[in-house]
Amino acid sequence: MSRTWKSALLVSGAWIALAVAPASAQDTAARASDETASDSGEIIVTAQRREQSVQDIPFTVNAVSGDDLATASVTDVFALQNQVPGLDIRTTNPPSAGGAFSIRGLGTGVFNLGFEPSVGTVIDGIYRSRSGLVAGSDFLDLERIEVLKGPQGTLFGKNTSAGLIHFITAKPKIGDMEATVRGEYGNRKRLSLQGMVNVPIGDSAAFRLSAGFVDDDGYIRDAVTGAGYGEKHRWNVRGQFLIEPSEALSIRIIGDYAKADELSITAVPFKVDAADFAFNRTVALAAGSDFFADRSDSRRRAAINTPPLLNAEDWGISGEINYDFGGATLTSLTSYRKFTDTFQGDNDFVGTDILNTNQGESIKTFTQELRLGVDVGEAVDLIVGGFYSDETIRRLNQFVWGSQIVGNGPGFFFPWAPGIAFTDNMGQNGESYGVFAHGIAEVGALTITGGIRYSGDNKDGFGTFTYPQPFPLPMVYNYGAGTNVPAKVRDNGISGTASLSYAVTDDVNLYGTYSRGYKGGGVSLIRDAGGILVGPQFGPAPPPGCGAGPFPGTFSCTPSDPTFEKETVNHFEVGMKGQFLDRRATLNVALFSTKAKNLQTQSLLPSGSFSVVNIGSAKSRGLDMDLTLRPTDGLELNGGLVYAKVTDQNGNDLDHAPRFSGGVGATYEWDFGSSGLRAFMHGDLGFKSKYFTTNDLSQSQKPYEIANARLGIRGPDDKWEVSAWCRNCFDTKYRTIDFGIPLDGAAFNFDGASVLSYIGEARFYGITLQYKY
To answer: Is 103 helix (H, G, I), strand (E, B) or coil?
Structure first.
């Protein structure tokens, strides 16, 4: 039986079995009164910077509670994709530069710190400038996650032109003493420990401390050394202090720290031609390693000389102050964050010891936001505010020739020796600012929403390069201040939204929304952003656009612009949000059309240089729907589907944009008589249709499904829990990113004959123990 049918049977069988569950399950109707909102399916979110039911928001929002995340075994953003149709998350190394998020096929997928994401990430109202930093963290003590689809620039600022993911952590509870400890043990030596304690301080304050640790052995195996790649060895801690000295004033201070010290992911061979295999295996065996001719993506094995060692630290502090003047509330959000990482890895990606890399990044960010919320009469709610951020990025990158550079690869032609080949220093200083206004007016059954924001960006970048070896090819142009390749960006733009929503009944809303997104231009922070000064010519003629170099066997190009232009988005959406069958069924349906102008991307030029380009335009059009059913107490069935046709101005598909994505799930809880014990079971199945894995559309991933499940029992009042679970239960194998092998038959080129792949996570399974006080 195929995995597709096994996966489908997992969830469909659960739906059928649960639908005919024992009648005794229906006797659990005697629930506490505080579950009424949950039973009605109402979800409260802050997608418009104010508390509202998700059914009242005039655009698509997918919200997942912290409890639902735990039940579905969602421990990081990569697993979140199974719960949110149309969301795609992938990464290369290191995650700080290689993380990429997209929604409905639109996003930014480049390994370049100069790029800011099209899908913004926000944690407790604080904007994170690089989504890759979030990709490296495990979830800890979350209240919920909100995924906002479509441009969100009016209230959340720049770089949300495709959407936004908002992580809301559980805040301190005044007056309650609580504690939770949770442990997991699973295959691949997975061990996860998390704990939380909430301590009241008098009648007006509380302190909450959360901490977590995770360790596993990875899911990619080195066939020669036995090392595990893609492993996790990380811990994080968060402390919060909340004080409410009066009914008018609240102050919340959050400090957090996260640390990772692990062997990160590496690419594995996907396609290998005969010439590449013959050359690379001979050289790899001489280095004490190996090279494969088979499809290693299906066996999850690699062979490399330099393990992908990642060390990363991420810490920050933020403060939120709210003061209610009576009819008006002033909010201040202040934050300072610092992220640093170092990474060393194998840059020829195979067992040949020819090229390695050492690199490190540092990102420091200060942000300040002020908002004033005003109730104008009983029917108008207005928010006005301003935002400022200051960011400093520094990146050090070294290319290191390995022990086999002499007489192999380009070492056939140039007298290079093992050691540092190039040292690159790059950085950017940036300031951003914005002012905005957003209002909601109710006129009978009609709700009118409007907002506008002005944003500005000032960025100054630089790249300086040193060459400790003779004939340091390729040589690249320095860029930035004092060079003939300037790297300065001054951008501004308008974003906004306008929508009409009509309440057909108390439970059914129809809406139409227009929104405009803005994403500022920037400076590319990769070594060849300014163009190649002198490069080695392996072919019969220089690359297009370049001429003969200063000595035989070389070529030279004119300087290129390391900057890129701003990106703008126009988005239209019409939809219906409704609850039916006495609010036991919730159905939300939306039709959308999104057009991005000057979409920022990165491409490989024939010269071997990575160039930042703005493609003319891209469109995403389609359908987004989700359904939740609660036919009996304790039973919830859900499903979601996104159809998105995503094309560029020439009608070509964009990469990593499946036409169909979605999932189905079922959760059921029932009592064991009057013992106070409750059992529960959960199953979900996420799927994606075919998508391209390279931006030149030369490679693609066939459709696949991911199944997850959990079965467990809880004690009286949910004091304890024991459960067994699996993620990717049927061990589905799939690729996320493909690229041409750099060392291709004794030369550096990208002819596409051989392909390497980053692959999805393998099956994990285990048990969980949890205790609450």
So the answer is: strand
